TrEMBL record:
<feature type="transmembrane region" description="Helical">
    <location>
        <begin position="12"/>
        <end position="31"/>
    </location>
</feature>
<feature type="domain" description="MARVEL">
    <location>
        <begin position="5"/>
        <end position="125"/>
    </location>
</feature>
<dbReference type="Pfam" id="PF01284">
    <property type="entry name" value="MARVEL"/>
</dbReference>
<dbReference type="InterPro" id="IPR050578">
    <property type="entry name" value="MARVEL-CKLF_proteins"/>
</dbReference>
<keyword id="KW-1133">Transmembrane helix</keyword>
<feature type="transmembrane region" description="Helical">
    <location>
        <begin position="37"/>
        <end position="57"/>
    </location>
</feature>
<feature type="transmembrane region" description="Helical">
    <location>
        <begin position="99"/>
        <end position="121"/>
    </location>
</feature>
<keyword id="KW-0472">Membrane</keyword>
<dbReference type="InterPro" id="IPR008253">
    <property type="entry name" value="Marvel"/>
</dbReference>
<protein>
    <submittedName>
        <fullName>CKLF factor</fullName>
    </submittedName>
</protein>
<feature type="transmembrane region" description="Helical">
    <location>
        <begin position="69"/>
        <end position="93"/>
    </location>
</feature>
<keyword id="KW-0812">Transmembrane</keyword>
<dbReference type="GO" id="GO:0016020">
    <property type="term" value="C:membrane"/>
</dbReference>
Length: 137
């Protein structure tokens, strides 16, 4: 278990994404909103928890079949695109206050997804061990 990961900026961002997605899910479920809102919030919660566990348990170092930070960037960008559409629909339609609150939390989650993608992109592009000047192992 990587005990330093939750205290790192990436770990704190993953935890924040999980909590905001869970709060949006609760808002959509309690409000009885459309199933698309609930499905997106639940998928975002589950996928973010899985990536959090992947990094927390250092499974990304053991399973080298995929470049996990790049997969995480793609997940963040696609989630941001879906969150933009669904959250704007939830805010515009605002059938009740729960749907409106879930839409606002979805927009906050959108910002967190973009921040996570930018942070991961900077980590990948500034990682010296993957460059050509790195010594061979």
């Amino acid at each position: 278990v990587d005990r330093a990961f939750p205290r790192s900026p990436r770990g704190a961002l993953k935890i924040a994404r999980t909590l905001v997605a869970l709060a949006a899910l609760v808002c959509f479920v309690v409000a009885g909103s459309h199933q698309a809102y609930t499905a997106l919030a639940s998928m975002e919660t589950a996928i973010t928890v899985l990536f959090l566990l992947l990094y927390l348990l250092r499974l990304d170092e053991r399973m080298r079949c995929l470049f996990w930070p790049l997969a995480d960037i793609f997940n963040s960008m696609i989630a941001a695109l879906f969150l933009l559409v669904v959250s704007l629909f939830a805010i515009i339609i605002k059938t009740n206050k729960g749907t409106l609150a879930g839409g606002v939390l979805g927009l906050i989650l959108l910002v967190l997804c973009l921040a996570d993608a930018i942070l991961l992109f900077k980590k990948i592009s500034h990682d010296k061990s993957r460059g050509r000047s790195a010594p061979a192992k």
